[in-house]
Amino acid sequence: MTSTISSTNKNFAKLYKWAFGRNRALMIVFAVLMAVGIVIDIQSLITISHSRIDNYDDSMGLLGYGSILVAQLGAVCFSVISAIHTFNFLHNKRSTDMFGAVPATRSTLYFSHLLGGITAVSIPFTVGSFIVMALTCRTTQYFMTDVGFILMGIVAIAAVYSFTALIAYCCGTSLDSTIITIGANGIYMGVVAIFMFATCSMIPGLVGSVIFNTPIITLFAPVGFCVFFDAYCTLGQTTAMWTTVIWSILFTAGMILLGNHAAKTRKMETAQNEFNIKWLPIVIKAGISVLAGGFAGMTAVSGQGSSFSNMFIFSFWYIITGFAAFIILHLIFSRGTKVKFLPSLLTYAGTTAAALGLLFAMTTGLGIDTYIPAESNINSITFQSDEMEYKDPENIKTIMELHKLMMEGTLEDISHPYYIGIYYNSNSMYYGTDYETKYPLTFHASFNFKYNKKFGFTTEREYYAYFGRSSTPKYDYEKIEELLKKLYNSDEYKKLSNPELWKAESIKRNGELPVSADINIMVYSEQAERYSHRGNIGLKTDETFLDGLVDALKKDILADKEYYKHKIAAGIYYYDYSNNVYIGDRYYYLNIGYRNDSNNISEMILVQVSENYTNTLNYLRNNGYASELDNPSFSVDDSDNI
Is pLDDT at 396 greater than 80 in this prediction? Predict the structure, then answer.
């Protein structure tokens, strides 16, 4: 039979109920698992309620959206199982003939089964998730998060179900359908991960996390839609989150349209026989061979050095493992040797040649390892892990020069070009050396460069100050230290490192004055051989007084010629390792606190004040705090120490 329409009559409701009822057993299993999860949550809530914790609402909220995330994963798994089960009538000749006799169009048959299956999976997921949300949600923040997770879960169910349904229409057996559904999702995400891992291993400086922080990782893998949406939502990556949502909806719509087309054009003779789309198994075989070969090749060279022979080791294991995976899948899809072997073999040979050709090209660097954007194309640079964005032209030049020094030093430390292996960006410290004495800004530091270009694109590189494989670092530490001091003494860095201090002209925030202000004095005790906390000096929260204090502090910070010292020793104070002493006999912390939405005091301004900040200290003395500043009490047994 090759007809595309069984009848012009519509029986959507009956077919929908049939498909829904066909999934009754799966619904019960999923509902039971959701109920077990709810019981576990209730037990956890009882434990939380009997615990003396300050963040009670947060603990409940974390439990809630964590449970919904697990439920999402369960829903995705059940969607694959349910879709394969619902559409397995396509893979049996008698079932296909029976449904072909039903007075309904092919489109009606497709949509009724699709919606019936989606409903069967969505009901236990949605009901269970809302019960969890009702038990755990106590704040607006977690309410919005939970609702977003639930809605995205439903979208993910529809995406996975429609994708699996399309594959079912393209295959002749349920086994083929299962292999290709799982394989297609795994191949795409696996190849992207292997590519990321390989490029970062071969080309030092590349940042692999950049790939995982973009929706490209799940572009053609619907099983990962909700997982990465949750990750982007939790990490606050708004653009990636909404891109995932939009793409998930478009992907689902595309799968439904293609599925409907496949339903209309599928030949009845395909059941228990062959693929409706001839090239589909060839693509899957080629993809899995690339994934298996890449994984085996990278594993084989992971423990080796960086010699040119590693390329041959990688190639050998890539070809052997990839070919073995290809043969196994070919035998499964062809039910032995029924299908011609040569066309598939040519496809495997072509993909292998392309993959190894790309490998050899990558190991020359292709200019990626030495690439630094042109200064004229740079809008700003985000440098280091503190996410400070520099726009001052002088600072941009300084950071680019730092990048060049790190890049040149790194390339001297490996076999280049034609390097292949796992390049460990290890930040192992060299104990017993004087590096930390000479270069405290550089010591044990990572260097991350993110170029924000004028046309909206970004380029990111990351290096470490020390590498575990090298006994003698190749970097010009003296020059790096000089450039870092220049950067950290710049006015732009001073403002970026104290954003709340420069946030507004007035001390008010949203029209409200701070509710607290105090100075902490840290003094050094010769007897205890440590810095200890003197205590708090409470300050007035008068607007005029605090505005004057902030103005004086800004003047001192901008005039500080050694501000880079605030960057050293975990931001506490500068420690002179060569003489084993602290520079300066005391320092201060200014704290200005505001109330947040939860009516708790949240420190919005926290600034380190050095002893040479005369404008600030004299201002405090002139306003009645001279005695407390100049004659602090001190306790050797004070537990708040450095």
Answer: yes
